[in-house]
Specification:
Layout (H helix, E strand, L loop, with lengths): L1 E2 L3 E8 L9 E8 L13 H5 L14 E8 L5 E14 L3 H6 L15 E12 L4 H16 L6 H10 L1 E2 L6 E4 L7 E4 L12 H9 L1 H12 L3 E6 L2 H14 L8 E3 L16 E6 L3 H4 L5 E5 L4 E3 L11 H15 L2 H4 L14 H20 L6 E5 L5 E4 L1 H7 L6 H8 L1 H10 L3 E2 L3 H8 L1 H7 L3 H19 L33 H17 L10 E2 L6 H8 L7 H15 L3 H14 L3 H13 L6 E3 L1 H16 L5 H13 L2 E6 L2 E4 L13 H23 L4 H9 L7 H17 L5 H30 L8 H6 L4 H5 L7 H6 L13 H22 L4 H31 L19 E10 L19 E8 L2 E8 L9 E6 L3 E10 L6 E9 L3 E7 L5 H15 L8 H4 L5 H4 L11 H13 L3 E5 L23 E6 L13 H12 L1 H9 L16 E4 L15 E4 L4 H8 L9 E5 L6 E5 L4 H8 L11 H18 L28 H16 L11 H7 L8 H4 L8 E3 ...
Parallel strand pairs: 10-12, 10-13, 11-12, 19-20, 34-38, 35-39, 36-37, 36-38
Antiparallel strand pairs: 1-7, 2-3, 2-6, 4-5, 5-6, 8-9, 13-14, 15-16, 17-18, 20-21, 22-23, 22-28, 23-24, 24-25, 26-27, 27-28, 29-30, 31-32, 33-34, 40-41, 40-46, 41-42, 42-43, 44-45, 45-46
Helix pairs in contact: 3-4, 4-18, 5-6, 5-7, 5-11, 9-11, 11-17, 12-24, 20-21, 20-22, 21-23, 22-24, 25-27, 25-28, 26-27, 28-32, 28-33, 32-33, 37-55, 43-49, 47-48, 49-50, 49-53, 50-51, 50-53, 53-54
Length: about 1900
Amino acid sequence: MARLADYFVVVGYDLDKRGGSEGQGHILQRFPEKDWEDNPFPQGIELFCQPNGWQLVPERERPSFFVSVLTDINSERHYCACFTFWEGLDNPQLPKAEASEVDEDEVPGLVQPAQVFAPKSLVLVSRLDHTEVFRNCLGLIYAVHVDSLSVPLETVIGNLLTCVIPVAGGSQRTITLGAGDRQVIQTPINDSLPVSGSSVAHLFRQLGIVNVLYLFCAALTEHKILFLSSSYQRLTDACRALLAIMFPLKYSFTYVPILPGKLLEVLSTPTPFIIGVNSFFRSETQELLDVIIADLDGGTVTIPECVHISLLPDPLLQQTQTALSMVLDPELEMADHAFPPSSTQPSTLKIQDKEIRAVFLWLFGQLFHGYRWCLHIIRIHPEPVIRFHKAAFLGQRALTEDDFLMKVLDGMAFAGFISERGPPYRPTDLFDDLIANQVERIRQEECSPHKVMNHIKELAEQLFKNENPYPAVAMHKVQRPAESPGHNDPKNLAMFPLLDDVTVQLFIDHAAAKLQTAPPVVKAELKGMVPSGPPLGDIVDRHGHVLANSARRLEVVRNCITYIFDNKMLEAKKLMPAVLRALKGRAARVCLTQELNQHVLQNRAVLDDQQFDYIVRMMNCTLQDCSHMDEHGIAAILLPLVTAFCRKLGAGITQFAYSCVQEHMVWTNMQFWEAMFYSDVQNHIRALYLEADGGEQSIASRGQQESGPAAGGQELLCALELASEQSRLWPTLSKEQQSERVQKEESTVFSQAIHYANRMSYLLLPLDTSKNRLLNRSGIGDVESVSNSYVTNSIAGSMAESYDTESGFEDAESSDVANSVVRFINRFVDKVCNESGVTNEHLKALHTMIPDIVQMHIETLDAVHRESKRLPPIQKPKLLRPILLAGEELVMDGMRVHLISDGREEATGALGGPPLLPAEGAIFLTTYRLIFKGTPNDPLVGEQVVTRSFPIASLTKEKRISVSLSMDQFIQEGLQLRSCTFQLLKIAFDEEVASDLAEVFRKHMHKLRYPQHVQGTFAFTVGQSGKTLVEHKTKDKNQSIKTLSKNLVKSAKRTIGRQYVTRKKYSPPTWENRSSLQSELDEDELSVSEELDQGSLTLSSTIRSSDRQTMSNVVERACCRDYQRLGLGTLSNSLTRSKNEPFRISTVNRMYTVCRSYPGLLIVPQSIPDSTIQRISRCYRQNRFPVVCWRNSRTKAVLLRSAGLHAKGVVGFFKSPNATSAGPSQADSTSLEQEKYMQAIISSMPSYCEPSGRNTLGGFTSTHMSTSDSSDKLRQPKIGALMKQVMGGKEDVPGTFSRGALGQRARVISLSQPRVSGKVRNPPGGKWGSIRGSGRLSAYNPEVGNRLSSKESPQPNGGPSEALFLRQQRAYLYIIGDKTQLKGGKQDSFQQWEVVPIEVCDVRQVKNSFKKLIKACVPSSATSEPSMTFHRCLEESEWMCLLHRVLQVSVLVVELLDTGSSVMVSLEDGWDVTTQVVSLVQLLSDPYYRTFDGFRLLVEKEWLSFGHRFSHRGAQTLASQSSGFTPVFLQFLDCVHQIHLQFPMEFEFSQYYLKFLAYHYVSNRFRTFLLDSDYERIELGVLYEEKGERKNPQVCKSVWDYIDRLNKKTPIFFNYMFSPEDEEVLRPYSFISNLKVWDFYTEETLSEGPSYDWELVQRGRQERLAEEVPDKPDTTTPKSQRRIVWPCYDSRSRVVPDAITKLLQDLQSLEAELGLPPEKWKDTWDKIKANQRAEAKLENRPSFNSSLLMSSNLSHQRRSQGVYLPESGVGSSINLAMDRETSTTSTPVAGRPSTSTLYSQFQSTESENRSFEGILFKKGALLKPWKPRWFVLDKTKHQLRYYETRQDKECKGVIELAEVESVIPGTPTMGAPKNIEEKAFFDLKTTKRVYNFCAQDSPNAQLWMDSIQSCLSDA
């Protein structure tokens, strides 16, 4: 029973205290005067009566009523019902105003009313919430006062204060206050359910569903919520409603439904709150940053940006919204029905209110179901102590990641919920029933909204019944004040009287006395056992999504464990990877723990080493893959197991599994240990009572039968049941029994605390106590980091980052570890013992025990650690030895490492196939390579061998990494090594490799990568003993041939300023008997006499007879051979030199004094003396003056190369030469000489005639100029366009190139001169590469500038003026120069040379581009980012753009040379881009360089002799390390590869040849590509030794010799498609769309490593074959012929060789079988080719160009076919695009194919099948002339097509052969071509018309007729 009203208060306006604008209220009277003992009077009521402030108003307002809620210090709520009315007052301000009338300041017009009204409030304070009753009671008091009823007010108030009603129980009371009134009060049936009236329904109407759900979630997750409304009652209702829908949770923060204006600063409190404020104060609430504001009047909810509200988890949110909309808007569903039901009105507000609350009740039922299974009861007596195991709850509900639920469970409301609802023996309510009995129903109905609605309606009914137990009774009779007629008449209303407090007090005392005498009302409280509901585990299973697809995996886990315990280790090993993968799923983890449990007997399971290792690995994997919440479930079950599994290490020393699974964050998480402790305590207490009470056994057995899937299911059930039973019995026990039970429980908890102190020390003390791994990482030492929630300590963070095991504990004593562990355990013990009520004595005892426990454990561990080190390591795969080259030696023997997979997906199995990586093996460092050899970790491919290696010299980047291997927890140190042979080794050192050993490895690697001197490289040290490797101090005594060359170089160094004397005349021996003379060659053959004056010696005096020999060597060099081949002068005596030769070979540089980086012999114009050359050379960078390097045999134009000019020389060079100067200065004379030099070159050209008409070189004007099939003028536009492209316009102008023109016509012409385009011909023998896709314009547009000497203005489109390109007087010499260098140079119109400024790629650009290219082709880690895909990275590297530029410039130069102009390439220092361009130009222009000998010569001449800085660019020594690796040569080879792809029939060598060079030019295996110039090679004696004898025939010093030898053995370098055309000039397409990524960059063969060290690969294959041959033939099973080829493992070309290689191999094996002497493959091949040519000759009918001998049947097709013909050695496919183009003159071919059917397997993909083709004249339509057209007969398409010209791609017309009726000989008609015999005419009659044709002669016409006829008859 409780008082209806505790206090009655009258509050009025305080006239005395009114100051300033705000008035104040004060309490006029209160009853009772004295506070109740159980309920003191709340302070500050006057503030709440007028929340907006006390103010006087000019007009009377209507009475108002609202209820405020105050919360007292004990968090009890007091409901203050305020009834306010207004009473008239004489205006207190008037007298003052009259006095101040004289004041001028008084504002006129403000007339003060004579009477004002003051508010007065009647307040009723109660602890019960009966709003309507309060409204009625206060209204009655007001009515009695206003209407002056006969009842004294004191009686009414006395009755009100003495009215007592029940709090709950569903009773009904009728009360009366003695004024003829009667009210019925119904109390709710169950006190715990909130009473809401219709406030919830109102709230939803005001704000809407989504807004209220936001507020609901915000309140539960502890945000600040503020309601705004202009109505006070609405604020109270809204707050009440929000609390009602939170049931069963209770709001425990600040709750003020109506906040007075004076207390607004409360809003800035840091704690959460729910507060209501009048809209009057809206502006004050605007600056609150973290408050959610709900405006009830406007229906909006404003959430600040900084506030994030976690919403309900997903399916629930959707279901809740649906259910709510069905309650609030039932018509929504029927809105679309054709026949809507007559009425679907929503329920009345009161019912609707309950339905909404039912939805929320149902929601909480779903959120919290199963919570009772996660309660730990740790004490039953004297009071139950209960803990909630949050991690288990979230883990089993599979909601660990859910933000909302996490926050709710962490919140205060839930803590209150557990403490209130946790006890197992208490009264139950609707929610308990829902959780216990209706979860099943909720789950089944989840998907059907209508069933859900029915359930909700049932719940709503119960809620409604709880509030209105007697809905029928509503007998209220309350007096309301009559509408007073003089409502505004102030005189009518008397003031509220002062009441007689004595009278009221009498009433109260009287009632109190009565209460005391009355017998106490004993209402039996119905306590009972709280049912727990279905266990959690079931629920997860039925959802199905957690355990999906796991039966097979569980089977694998079970099998593996069985194998381990049956000691079938091999089987277990095979299953292991699958098990580790399966353990990612929770079901498999649970299964693992259950299986392991079965193998534990009496808390022990002793294993052998290997079993122990596997079990530990599985445990680690299980713990590692857990999410941070789930971990607790799994770690909890594993905790007893890690102390059970052990192995014997030695006498009395046992190692337990816990010492190997400490690396997990879960062990350092305080909450985990608490939860574990409580769960164990619960089990023990349960056992305690089960033993004590035999009668309870039945319960236990029942629990055993219902084995729930939750591991702790049955105990949990019994524990709560037991507790409830014990609580029921507690009052019946005697005092002794009670204290005995309390003591027993307490000691149980105490013993568990000791047990846990031990357990924690097991898992927290590391095996090696000197390394404090775990503690240091998780910061156990500091309180904060541990106590914070498990989110921060998630294991994810710990594994991903590498941590230094020893950091911070370098010198730490083990005591440090001990101290921090002791501190951690102490903190744990304090917490749990205080919570579970352990006595202080026991707690002290624990604190003294813990350090001893820890110390004892440390001692045990030391012994274990010692012994475990002695263990024989687990059998790891044996290390495989790599095969070494002759002369290659191991520097460091194999170190066990794991090869980790990088970003290439092929090997990891991501693209299909088994995962070959990661692999376990060893890394070997030899003098030449870094080799990894091992076997894949995946047992399914465990038999395969994985090899990855690269030459040590190609290492470009080394980086330390830390790797965590999936199997083991340890993070290992590793290295990532990148090589410029496009290989990446990511290795992690095995734990057996000491870290200092890894460091030694790194040092050795660096020493080998960057030797002090180039003589330290492998090419030099090969075959020497290993010692010389580490220190290069030993001196080579046998200097042999080096001496000679050294002396030569010394002489060169000393030529200027030093003289040396030959002691004894020495003529070197001939090459043959060189070896016998080694001893004679001694260091001091030549020696130095005293120094002479600088400059006293001229150059010519320095050459001695002893050097003549050297000269002859120089002559033997490649350059000279080539000069002679090109007819560029001979090295004869100057007297006998033929005068009419324009060039001579100069020996000016024979001592390398003019230019260090040039060869000794150079080609210069005949007329230039050596002295001039020396002067000229100073104008050029590095003294690299222009020299001739190639001459076009047809046009006699020459190609020159030089470096760029020195900056000062440039301007002088291009100044007008006629300017006279006062005195010829040094610069001018050089400039003139330079000019003379240029002129001399121009004069050497046969086409050069001076303007005066004098022919300078008459003897040279040969007939070759007239052979060109169209005048130069017509060919010019092609070059014009090329020029524009190379130089680029200001922007891409349509005039320069149109996409369409390029894409379809593949014609490069300048479109500003369209007339010419029809007649453009390819020059004889020239060809353009196929174009694929639309032509991309030049990727860079350098400014054109005023580069040309012509006087016409340039074209408006930015291209250079057309007239310039078409002018007769074309420049005789074009200088390709660097744009940046040529600024400010102006040209004279009479000069015959012209400068083409282009932008070259800087070396830095190449270097950076290459870095990016490597990262694109060999990424270090896999990534899914779209910005990091292969093609995107490739594009960003700009490698293709650089290739495009080089090719583009080269094609331009080829064009210029081909039209008879000479070209001088003068870029940068003349040794990078210049070399690339010059080499490519020669390769494209001269077929000789496309053969083996020619290409070798080209590289030796242009790259080696002309001083490309191989050592510097390749960063081969310590000195060049800083410059970094710049692959200029690789870029050249890539360009050659691109040309090779476009013209596969023009090269004698295969793509493999190019890859071979690309690999070995950086490998340092050969000396060929070492050093920067001939000068340096001579200095080291490398240059001439290659021709000498070799001591060790195995060691090839020159890559060329090696290739020659290999080429004799095997056709691996040979291109079977080689069938060149004479004098063929290639013009490849250079657009980026035509370039392909070289497969050299991307392919790899893991089975054998790179295939470029041929003998290694061969030996490896022989070994493998030997292994594969079985000991005895296996006759039982047929051997399958199938082989599986893995893309990155096998060498495709070996497994699936191309047809020709296969035939050659078969021939060889047949020869071997027949015992014939093996024939060389080349001889065989040549024979076949010869036969085939002969056949082709016989078969070809005579044709109109019999001079052309066909090299193969294919030659009439366009020869840029791509054919799939992989080279042996490495697989590559040339793509199959056979775009065709015919040669200039072609032979029609008919008849059957010959031996060359070899080629016929390669079907053309393009639609143009040309069975027969040639030129025919065709008669046009009426009055049109006969025109020659190119006709193509196509058997496949059955049509005759004709084209404008042979090159034309677009067909002009088609005659369908199906329509042809006959082909007959014809007669010449009008306008037919003259001079053609009559028999050459024939007619083709079709259904539509007759075509007249004319061939060149009668046999040809016959051929055409026969061909067409045969087509027709075939059809």
